[in-house]
Amino acid sequence: MAVPDVEAAPLKKRIILFLKFSIFLSLGLLVIWLSLHNLSPSEKNAILESFRDANYNWVILAFFLGICSHILRALRWRIFFEPMGFHPSFKNTFYAVMVGYFANMAFPRLGEVTRCGILTKYEGIPFNKSFGTVITERALDMILFILLFFLMIFTQIGTIGHYLRTNVYPKIQGKFFDPFSNPLLIITLAALVIAAVVSVFIFRKRIKNSRLFHKVWNLIAGFGEGLKSLARINHPLLFVFYTLAIWFLYFMMLYLCFFCFAETSHLSPGAGLSALVLGTVGIMVTPGGIGLYPAIIQETLILYGISKTTGLALGWISWSAQTIMILMVGSLSLILLSFNKKRNEQIGAH
Q1: Consecutive H or E run containing 87
Q2: Measured between alpha carbons, how far is 320 from 62 in angstroms, rounded to an integer?
Q3: Which stretch of DSSP H or E encloses residue 115?
Q4: Taking the mean position of all CA atoms in its chain, how far away is CA 78?
Q5: Which of 120, 221, 301, 339 makes an SS bond possible with 306, Cβ 3.0 to 4.6 Å?
Q6: How far is CA 168 from the centre of its chain?
Q7: Which of 27-31, 103-107, 147-151 has the lowest mean pLDDT?
Q8: What is the reported pLDDT for 24?
């Protein structure tokens, strides 16, 4: 399978991709506007002064640690393929990872498909097998994220816990209710479940022949292939080391930015953990975390006594370092892949 080409996609798919991108981008721009429009002129000047006074040596170091994290991700991804009998080169695997992140900056979740397509094109690895490993990889990252979330709650309960009790829990209690206290709701849900089961039984042949069913089935099969390769990996300790090291580097990329400002340089690694976990949520919601990531970092650091101007400046600096790194290395990887393609064509011509 070739690398996905958005321009060559059918008009309907291009429209859907454009709408998805527009919605996520609009959400990010809305968050940017909300975080800036209420700032007074003096606060805006304070943010600009924070940018001018920041020590960017730490940002440069964070930039290179980000590249190291993606190198480890490429090395970890190669381990998945060994039990399948594939041995992709590190060069193409790294290019695929970086082009995938680059694609995700434009269209969320396009990167997963893109990087699998690259390995199919340049390494001959069947798409469904590589895509299964990506799904497994994402599942592992989500498990580790959840573990870090609970670690944050337990270690930062005095700060985060107070914020949850005063700002989050009351809103949740005001908007939701106990569904089991409403018999009518229980009956309605039970009827919907029964209707769904009966419909699946009646139309089971048509469902099995549908395109959607085959897509879902291939997705499940690919995930199964990924789990099988995970169970048969040849270097389990190395795999665990790569996984932990990747997230440690993610943490260090953000925590090093704390030392850009005198006001945040005293913060503990626990504050960095809170910023990492909550900031990751922003990256999940908007493309590359645009707008939302700096705002979440700002709100998180306020809990630790940091002014909102410094917190917002730090959030933008950290986000910018990560984004510039992906744009630079991702675009360079795409260029190098195109040269690789030309060389292969020249060899084939001779």
Answers
A1: none
A2: 11
A3: helix 110-123
A4: 20
A5: 301
A6: 24
A7: 27-31
A8: 52
pLDDT at 108: 65
Give the Cα separation of 145 and 51 in Å (integer).
30
CA torsion sign, 281 to 287 to 289 to 291?
A: negative
Crossing angle for the helix pair 127-155 and 211-231, to the nearest 10 degrees: 70
Q: Which two tokens stand for residue 135?
A: 């799904």
**How high is the pLDDT of residue 147?**
92
pLDDT attached to residue 320:
85
Looking at residue 116, its amino acid is: C
> Residue 205, Cβ neighbours under 10 Å: how many?
8
Rounded Cα–Cα distance for residues 165 and 152 (Å): 15
Print burial letters for 46-76: b (CB count within 10 Å at least 16), e (below 16). bbeebeeebeeebbebbbebbbebbbbbbbb
pLDDT per residue as tens digits for the range 233-269 = 788 899 999 999 999 999 999 999 999 998 999 999 9
298 and 312 Cβ atoms separated by less than 8 Å: yes
> How many Cβ atoms sit within 10 Å of the Cβ of residue 225?
22
At 312, is the secondary structure helix, strand, or coil? Answer: helix
- Across the chain, the runs of DSSP E, i.e. the strands, are none
Tokens of 319: 């986000």
Q: In this structure, what token pair is assigned to residue 248?
A: 């440690």
Predicted pLDDT of residue 77: 93
pLDDT in tens, 33-51: 555 555 556 656 666 777 7
Q: In this structure, are residues 298 and 315 in contact, taking their beta carbons and an 8 Å threshold? A: yes
First to last CA, the chain: 25
pLDDT score at 339: 78
